[in-house]
Structure formats: C-alpha cells, structure tokens
Amino acid sequence: MSIWDATSPEARDNLLRVVDEQAQDLFAMAAAPGAWEAPTLSTQWQVRDVVGHLIDVTESYFTGFDAARAGASVADALGTKAMQDGLDVGARDLRSLEADVSLARLRADYAKMVDIVRGLSDDEWRSFLVPHKYMGPLPAFFYPVFQLMDYGVHGWDIRQGSGRAHCLNSDAADLLVPFMFVLWSATADLPADAPPCEIGVRILGGHNAGSWKVTAGPDAITYAPAAVDDLPTVLEFDPGSFVLTAFGRSNAGTVRGDATVADRYLNMFFRI
C-alpha cells in the first residue's frame, strides 16, 4: 500500500501520524520526574543528551532546507563515518540547557519541521533535493523519515535505559523497514579485498513484508526485492528486530543456511 511507502507523497499523512506518536511519547518520557539525567542505551548519553541530539539534527535539517530553497552553496558533506563523533559533539554542546528550555526548543523545532514537510508539494516530495550535513543531497522525503528514526529509535534508547522490557512500535518499524537497506549501504565498511557476499533478507510481517537480495561487493552494497529461496544464506526478521539490528541496537533475527556468510555480512558495518 502506498501509505506505507514513505517515498510516496501519498504516505505523508500516515508517516506524520506515526512520527507524531513517537515524538509525543519521547517528549513525555523526557519530561517525566527524574528522567532528565537518567541513562539510555548508550552509556555515554543521558536522556538530556538524546534531547540535545534531536535539537541538533533537526536544526541542521532547517539549514539544509533553507539552502535548498535559496539555491545557496553548502559545505561538502562530511560523510557517514563522521556522524558518530559529530552527533555526539552536537548533543553534548546542548547539555547545559535546563530541561524546560531544552524541551521547549525541541517541541518548537518539531512543529517547524512538521510545517516544512506539510508544505512540500507532491512533486517536491521526491524531486526536491535537500543537502544533508553528512550524507549530501537527498530527496525531501528522507527528512520526515529521519524524524521517524530520530524519535522512534531514540525513544527506544530511552526505554532501554530504564531497564524495563519493551518493544518497538509496529507502525514505526513497518515504515522504516525499506530504509534499513539504505542505512546498511550508507554504513558499510568493506575491505578492498573483501570477496563478494550475497544474502537474502526476509521480513516476515507488517506492511512492508517481503524478501530482498543483498550483495556486498568490494565497492558497495546493492539490494533489490527478489525471491531468495535459492540463496545459500537468508536472514529472517520481524520488522522491529530488523530495524534494531540494522541500527546496531540488538543482534536479532534468524539465520537460515550458511551461518558463516551471515556472520561475515552482519559484521561489515560501522555504527552511527
């Protein structure tokens, strides 16, 4: 269904609905008594650092949209390998803000981002290129998807830090499934002499269930929907487990076939 394909403008309302659910949940968690300096999944970040990170990245999106609208030149993209350190610095630079100030700023940034996304024409959804600080020019639809990653995955990080059992929201996971192949391709760390690695990936449920053939060569990772029954190694995931595995939050899924190939493939990525 097109409302579950975030590359389509027909998905806009559904996507923004899910983003809003995740954002409001994160705002509530961060504002809860005693939460501000509570740990998250990352031992280096407290809840306040997640909020600072979300401010930092959202305001960088504004810079990108402003430059794209003005036709202005921007600095060269820093590359995804620079993200881990750069995003950490951006989050910690805002650590001194009081909780109410920081959350008010994030809420205002979130509302502004929603307005920007709602203001895109259907044609701009796919064709309007907006420079990303680390990844370079991207179609506009990536930015509400990034907001879903920002709020959905980092909300998971906050819940994980609490020590309570929890799961990833199904709608968020379903919308993010196709973009996990993009994430893998953007975070591949392939040795020049690495032999080609071919695997299948099955997503066993949800609105974007299906199978994909993934090839990791010496230069890049490529992927496409395809039957995978004839491949020697297949990874199977539910949507939430796939998202969390691709983001390096967990080691989940089921290996069918040659586990050695799966091990080699799953360890080809750096974390952001």
UniProtKB/TrEMBL annotation:
GO molecular function, one term: metal ion binding
Signal peptide: none
InterPro entries: DinB/YfiT-like (IPR034660), Maleyloyr_isom (IPR017517), MDMPI_metal-binding (IPR024344)
Mycothiol-dependent maleylpyruvate isomerase metal-binding domain: residues covered: 26-159
Entry-linked Pfam families: MDMPI_N (PF11716)
SUPFAM superfamilies, A to Z: DinB/YfiT-like putative metalloenzymes (SSF109854)
Protein name: Mycothiol-dependent maleylpyruvate isomerase metal-binding domain-containing protein
Organism of origin: Rhizocola hellebori
